[in-house]
């Protein structure tokens, strides 16, 4: 009897999308099918020769697929038997897939996929073959069943051949790590399931360093509430960090890269909610960034994770210093007695911990060698930043990137300026906290104006919030003045003879232009940052994006800039973005926030929120915040802004007498700190 052919009842482009999955995603879908079929053993094997990978084979001992179910299973999407039930047929396991999409993802690996199926029918073992070819995705070829030796047992073997390439992600070591991350929760719940990669059983427990759960705020979608939870697994070793969106049972449906950094920690995070299952069934889970309720849950989960590892990092640093003291290699034998001595210890510990983190072999050195290096760091700190720079570069040979990260610390290593530097950082913390209150307080943000208040506060020696390396060069001038300032930086041989106009023909006005030198072989190479500040109550939308782009295009189109070694970054900044702006900031292939980049890379346009800028500032100051013991609350921060920037804040921040008293008390405390430092120095 000839083979049967079934036509898949679905649009071809939808199948093509399914057949374009990533290798690990494709393999994991086939593994999920096996465990849903009550398999207790599933094997993944890669068949290779000396030249390349030749086939991917996944075999299981599940109950197989009855021949009479093939057309329903392979002939249409959404026809899976699993769509009618929540648990597997024999063992009652929670089911992963219910839509029949997973089998088509096999073709993401190679041109041909074959299912050799064995199942029981009337106490006989029968077998048949199903074939899918990527050239004709809607054609499913099925052979007639034949009786097999009962000793073979039920199960399915999926063989994918004519592979597109050799997949490094499917090599044994990489595959074990990736699949352990995907199946970690499932294999914990179902210990009778064994998944083997090249005969090595997945055992996530051997790779897990720690595991913690946090309850999240319920996800509210139009009045319907879904519970949510985040589970974080830290791995003993992993090459990447992943954020999985899972159903309530912990089945991962989508894997995304976290949008935050947690240096030195390798983890997988699993956001679990039935809301994720709902979006998956609707086919819109891939649009997670456009879904406000789910994005809010992701943001909350990210904050939990950041706080978790921030606490872990602080504890690790504290433990490291304590261990140095126990090992008697800490170069200060007695406790500090003066403010200057305390400041010196703090600078030393920050530098030493950074050295420990960046020098991979530091922890493995002998106590004698560690003691010598720590004493050397102490002496360098006492002698000043030049000596410390020499030690870090010439003796310890730290990479250039690390030296830049420590450059701020080197400035503060000059003990004569420790107290003044501490005061500077304390004032900056107050400024940031007060600015945050002004920007996000419902009343004040309506009154705050971009140029007359917000702009002037930042222009008044506070442009460091955009980056310590920037210096104010032009404020609220036309682009013609930007050209003139640019000319003064690069030389007087450029003729400025007419205004630079935006693409719409109007003379361009910028709020701030900041400039920094780019370390290059040529002294004339420079980098500029142009910031367009918006009133906090104004959401960035199409109009604001068009305005900032018009500035960028004016620069790009002006012949006076074409041959200058200059890189431009244009920002538009406000509290919030509307839907159009958010979509613009999430373009494929671009960093988040970047909405334009010139072909030569010399002109970029970014959309930034104040929350991002403030968070970056706080991150830069965080390394000293604990050491300053600066209790910066909203009232004292607003008092600081009121006193220092009163001329810019009329009608915005009205501070009562109690708050004024709080400021005076804070100022007196700062004065006492400086006085104490002076007495100690004497």
Fold and architecture overview:
With 682 residues, the chain is of the alpha+beta class. The protein folds into five domains: 4-201, 2-Layer Sandwich (Heat Shock Protein 90); 204-303, no CATH class; 327-413; 423-617, 3-Layer(aba) Sandwich (Trna Endonuclease, Chain: A, domain 1), CATH 3.40.1350; 635-681. It is built from 21 helices and 21 strands. The strands form three sheets. Strands 1, 2, 3, 4, 5, 6, 7, 8, 9 and 10 form a ten-stranded mixed beta sheet that branches. A six-stranded mixed beta sheet has the order 16-17-18-19-21-20. A five-stranded mixed beta sheet has the order 11-12-15-13-14, sandwiched between helices. Strand 13 and strand 14 (252-256) form a beta hairpin. Helix 8 (339-358) packs across helix 9, helix 9 runs antiparallel to helix 10 and helix 13 (418-440) crosses helix 20. The longest helix is centred in the middle third of the chain and has 35 residues, at 292-326. The protein is globular and about 90 Å long.
Keyword list:
Heat Shock Protein 90, 682 residues, ten-stranded mixed β-sheet, six-stranded mixed β-sheet, disordered C terminus, alpha+beta
Radius of gyration: 31 Å
Could you tell me the mean pLDDT? 75
The total count of strands amounts to 21
CATH topology of the largest domain: Heat Shock Protein 90
What is the terminal separation in angstroms? 104 Å
Indicate the proportion of strand residues.
15-25%
Please give the CATH architecture of the largest domain.
2-Layer Sandwich
> How many domains, as an integer?
5
- Biggest sheet, open or closed, and with what strands and sense? 10 strands, mixed
Q: Low-confidence segments, ≥5 residues, pLDDT <50?
A: 78-84, 412-420, 627-632, 650-682
User: What characteristic shape results from the CA principal axes?
Assistant: globular
Helix count equals: 21
């Amino acid at each position: 009897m000839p083979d049967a052919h079934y036509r898949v009842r679905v649009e071809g482009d939808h199948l093509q999308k399914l057949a374009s999955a990533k290798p690990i995603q494709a393999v994991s879908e086939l593994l999920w099918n096996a465990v849903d079929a009550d398999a207790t053993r599933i094997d993944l094997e890669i068949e290779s020769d000396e030249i390349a990978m030749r086939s991917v084979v996944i075999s299981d001992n599940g109950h197989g697929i009855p021949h009479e179910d093939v057309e329903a299973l392979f002939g249409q999407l959404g026809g899976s038997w699993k769509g009618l039930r929540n648990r597997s047929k024999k063992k009652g396991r929670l089911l992963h897939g219910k839509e029949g999409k997973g089998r088509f993802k096999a073709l993401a690996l190679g041109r041909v996929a074959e299912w050799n199926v064995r199942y029981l029918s009337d106490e006989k073992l029968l077998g048949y073959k199903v074939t899918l070819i990527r050239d004709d995705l809607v054609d499913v070829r099925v052979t007639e069943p034949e009786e097999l030796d009962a000793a073979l047992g039920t199960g399915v073997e999926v063989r994918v051949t004519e592979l597109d390439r050799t997949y490094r992600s499917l090599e044994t070591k990489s595959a074990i790590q990736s699949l352990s991350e995907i199946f970690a929760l499932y294999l914990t719940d179902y210990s009778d399931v064994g998944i083997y990669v090249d005969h090595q059983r997945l055992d996530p427990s051997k790779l897990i360093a720690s595991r913690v759960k946090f309850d999240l705020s319920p996800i509210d979608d139009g009045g319907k509430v879904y519970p949510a939870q985040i589970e974080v697994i830290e791995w003993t070793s992993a090459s990447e960090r992943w954020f999985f969106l899972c159903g309530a049972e912990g089945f991962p449906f989508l894997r995304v890269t976290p949008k935050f950094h947690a240096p030195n920690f390798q983890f997988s995070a699993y956001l679990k909610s039935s809301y994720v299952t709902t979006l998956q069934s609707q086919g819109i889970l891939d649009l997670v960034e456009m879904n406000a309720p789910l994005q809010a849950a992701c943001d909350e989960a990210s904050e939990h994770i950041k706080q978790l590892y921030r606490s872990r990092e602080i504890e690790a640093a504290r433990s490291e210093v304590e261990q140095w003291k126990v090992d008697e290699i800490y170069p200060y034998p007695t406790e500090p007695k003066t403010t200057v001595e305390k400041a010196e210890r703090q600078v030393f510990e920050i530098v030493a911990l950074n050295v420990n983190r960046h020098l991979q072999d530091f922890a493995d050195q002998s106590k004698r060698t560690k003691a010598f290096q720590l004493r050397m760091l102490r002496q360098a700190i006492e002698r000043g930043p030049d000596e410390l720079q020499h030690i870090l570069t010439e003796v310890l040979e730290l990479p250039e990137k690390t030296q830049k990260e420590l450059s701020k610390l080197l400035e503060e290593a000059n003990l004569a300026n420790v107290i003044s530097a501490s005061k500077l950082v304390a004032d900056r913390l107050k400024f940031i906290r007060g600015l945050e209150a002004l920007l996000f307080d419902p009343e004040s943000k309506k009154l705050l104006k971009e140029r007359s208040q917000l702009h002037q506060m930042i222009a008044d020696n506070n442009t460091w919030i955009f980056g310590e390396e920037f210096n104010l060069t032009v404020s609220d001038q036309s682009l013609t003045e930007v050209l003139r300032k640019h000319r003064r930086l690069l030389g007087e041989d450029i003729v400025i003879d007419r205004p630079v106009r935006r693409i719409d023909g109007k003379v361009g006005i910028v709020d701030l232009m900041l400039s920094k030198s780019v370390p290059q072989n040529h002294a004339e190479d420079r980098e500029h940052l142009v910031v367009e500040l918006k009133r906090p109550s104004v959401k960035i939308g199409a109009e604001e994006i068009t305005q900032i782009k018009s500035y960028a295009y004016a620069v790009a189109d002006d012949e006076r800039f074409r041959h200058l070694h200059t890189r431009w970054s244009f920002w538009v900044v406000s509290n919030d973005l509307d839907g159009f702006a958010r979509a613009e900031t999430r373009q494929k292939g671009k960093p988040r926030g970047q909405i334009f980049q010139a072909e030569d890379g010399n002109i970029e346009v970014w959309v930034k929120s104040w929350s991002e800028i403030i968070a970056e500032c706080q991150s830069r100051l965080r390394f000293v915040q604990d050491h300053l013991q600066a209790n910066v609350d909203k009232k004292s921060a607003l008092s600081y802004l009121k006193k220092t920037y009163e001329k810019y804040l009329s009608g915005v921040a009205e501070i009562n007498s109690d708050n004024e008293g709080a400021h005076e008390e804070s100022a007196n405390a700062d004065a006492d700190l400086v006085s104490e430092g002076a007495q100690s120095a004497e």
